[in-house]
Amino acid sequence: MHLSKLLWKNAFRHRLRTSLTILGITIAILSFGMLRTVISAWYAGVDASSASRLVTRNAISLVFPLPISYKDRIRQINGVQAVSYGSWFGGIYIDEKNFFPNFAVEIENYLKLYPEFVLPPEQLTAANRDRKGCVVGRKLAERFGWKIGDTIVLKGTIYSGDWEFVLRGIYRGRDKTVDETQMFFNWKYLNETIIKTVPRRANQVGFYMVGVTNPNRAADVALDIDGAFKNSLAETLTETEKAFQLGFISMTEAIVIAIQLVSFVVIIIIMAVVANTMAMTARERIGEYAVFKTLGFRGYHIAGLIFGESLVITMTGCVLGIALTYPAAKAFGSTLSNYFPIFNVATSTIYMDLAAALIVGIVAAVFPTWRAVTIRIADGLRRIG
Amino acid sequence: MAIPFSYSFRNLWTRRLTTVLTASGMALVVFVFASILMLSEGLRKTLVDTGSPDNVVVIRKGSASEVQSGIERLHAAIVETEPEVAFGARSRRLLAKELLVLINLPKRGTNKTSQVVIRGIQPESLLLRPQVKLVQGRMPKAGSSEIMAGTSIARRFRGGGVGENLRFGMRDWTVVGIFDAGNSAFSSEIWGDADQLMQAFRRPVFSSVIFKLADSSAFEAVKKRLESDPRLTLEARRETKYYADQSEVMAKFLRILGMSLTVIFSLGAIIGAMITMYSAVANRTSEIGTLRALGFQRGSILAAFLMESLLLGLVGGCIGLFFASFLQFFTISTLNFQTFSELAFSFTLTFEIFYKSLLFSLIMGFVGGVLPAFRAARKNIVEALRVT
Asked: Measured between alpha carbons, how far is B362 from B269 in angstroms, rounded to an integer?
């Protein structure tokens, strides 16, 4: 009880210096938390993917399509429960900066494979009945103020021309890790238009989504699917949705690593600042520590005092930083929702914040403690300032 | 009368631990600041080297890049007849109809794959891009399954070296040459005969048409004619603008990331400098009193403490720049979100970045030191002398 009071009083003896240090730690923990959240947002697609879904695409690369005729052949393969397909449409809404993912899919079967997308059944029927019907996520609809029945026009980049859609449904995520910024529309609408304009590109899909009966057999099913199309004009590459998403991230690995490095750099910077504060504090109090020693207190008492004070400062800053992380993440997430559709502060981030603050507190106190403990009493008493 | 410079310098020296800690905090900030500027500069340089202002890229209207574009043979032939297209040797037009596709290739040493650009070229492609030079092997023969790889591909991808084979499009392709295209994005591409590749990928259309203007100022005229031709749905852009547009998102991402990190980090370092300087002032109250009693003006005291803080910033800046300059040996390769293909660029240190970083470190030192210096200058002589 007395000890904690003493630590607190000691910490705030230099009110300005301590407040500045705490402010520094708050900023550091806040930015560390935000950078960590950016990294977890990067991996959000991987975390949200299901182990029972496979993605089949052209083995050459994603830009090459697969014939629609593969659908029935995939369905015949043992272990396949459901097959749906889609194409990345890549349409632009008014301006390129309004980017959101839009896919031409077979709406009904596609959403069946994604139980985490919750859509009222009557909206699903409506979207299916209307060739131009489309379904968008709740966040996307809110972003542009779309209501059911509105007409949305996208400018095609892969399929040229202006494309008109009618909003027939708005889906919600089952929980907050679900991406609510996507748009789905009827693949048949795309295909029927393409048949007239560029028949060469008709009856093709970008990818197949395959639901498997038993997730443990997913790897075997994937091999069977690829085997079925070996040495054909369009060989396939099938992998789990998770591996598919990880493939994307591994291509941007350099950026993720850079952000990770930078998040540690900020901790090192603040470590230098706190170490400096503690070094100055201990230097000023060398005389007091000598008095303590004269009274019979041991080295570990003094070590406890310095470590305790350092931890009081870092932990105060850490708690403030964590408290600020939530509103900051919310503001950041809503302004950059087109870059990061899912931006939630993970619990592990908070633990990492605490661990970082703990490490900073301990490391900063090591050197001053060593000085205070090893100094001879007479030298300590002789020293001024 | 001014307080000698050595006073400030020796004060820093006396408190070495504190100086080192504060300066290293600033050094890290300058390091991050410089490295992000270097990265942006590297990206810019890559783009500038890739495009030439006299070259025009024609792609299908509405498509953001060559990857999404498609141009029918007939339409490409119409572009070829435009009078603004320059003539080369043997009265051939300086125009290349190219194919561009992305394929997945495994990297050396791992099983990870990455998207690589394959460009189907015609003989004129090389004339249009003088920065592309063969460094090893020979040019692929037209009409054969031979390809050449950029230096960055040969180094990082399995089967990319001379004499090795790559398999795609149901055929084996032999790498017969390695080309170097300097800093440009072409170094991350594989080049082969356009007609052969169109066959292999079963894509009967070109992706883009690139030509050199006979007269650079004729661009607007040819652009207008191409875009208003009712037979065509194409758009023309200068090559430099085309490549700048392609990595706009990446450049913006780097800029936003860089700016926000620099602001946050410099706050931390400024706080560090402030703590150091405040305690320097507090510890030396009686010294300041003595100096004032000796006749030094308030302004001199202010200048001395500011000088100390600026020195602190300068030391940090120099250390940070020293370490940042080693980054020039590194190359970053990442996915360009807009084209979905690999883009490699390296950290580039220019004189501008050099002085910007030093200026930035001095500003940090100034901001950190100005309040403590004012506090020092405002001290009352008598009270300051009384403090023990």
From this structure: 12
**What is d(CA A221, CA A229) in angstroms, rounded to the nearest whole number?**
13
The alpha-carbon gap from B97 to the nearest alpha carbon of chain A, in Å, equals 19
Contact status, residue A76 vs residue A176, Cβ threshold 8 Å: no
pLDDT tens-digit readout, B101-124: 888 888 888 777 778 889 999 988
What distance in Å separates the CA atoms of residue A252 and residue A254, rounded to the nearest whole number?
6
Q: What DSSP line would sit under A332-381, residue for residue?
A: HHHHTTTT-S-----HHHHHHHHHHHHHHHHHHHHHHHHHHHHS-HHHHH
Asked if A104 and A190 count as a contact pair (C-beta separation under 8 A), the reply is yes
Closest residue in chain A to residue B168, using alpha carbons only? A60
ipTM above 0.90, yes or no: no
Q: Are strands B171-180 and B146-150 parallel, antiparallel or unpaired?
A: parallel
Q: Do the beta carbons of residue A302 and residue A10 sit within 8 Å? A: no
3-class secondary structure, B116: strand
Domain boundaries, chain B: 5-48+248-386, 62-232
CA distance A99 to A93: 7
Interhelix angle A347-374/A286-294, rounded to 10 degrees, is: 70
CB contact under 8 A, A268 and B268: no
**Six-digit token pair at B125?**
């492609």
Q: What is the DSSP string of A25-92?
A: HHHHHHHHHHHHHHHHHHTHHHHH--TTEEEEEESS-TTS-EETTHHHHHHTSTTEEEEEEEEE---B
What percent of chain A shows pLDDT beyond 90? 47
Quick one: tokens of A310? 């350092």
CB contact residues (below 8 A), chain A span 12-51, against chain B: 14, 16-17, 20-21, 23-24, 27-28, 31
Identify residue A259 by its one-letter amino acid code. Answer: I
Closest A-chain CA to B70 = A158
Residue of B nearest to A92 (CA): B62
Alpha helices in B51-84 (DSSP H): 73-80
Residues of B in contact with A340 (CB under 8 A): none
State pTM to two decimals.
0.79
Q: Are B148 and B177 in contact (CB under 8 A)?
A: yes
Q: Residue B285 corresponds to which tokens in the numbers above?
A: 């109250």
B303–chain A nearest CA distance, Å: 22
Predicted confidence (pLDDT) per residue in A239-260, tens digit: 888 888 887 777 777 778 888 8
How many angstroms separate the CA of residue A21 from the nearest CA in chain B? Answer: 7
A 10 A CB-CB count for B111 gives 7
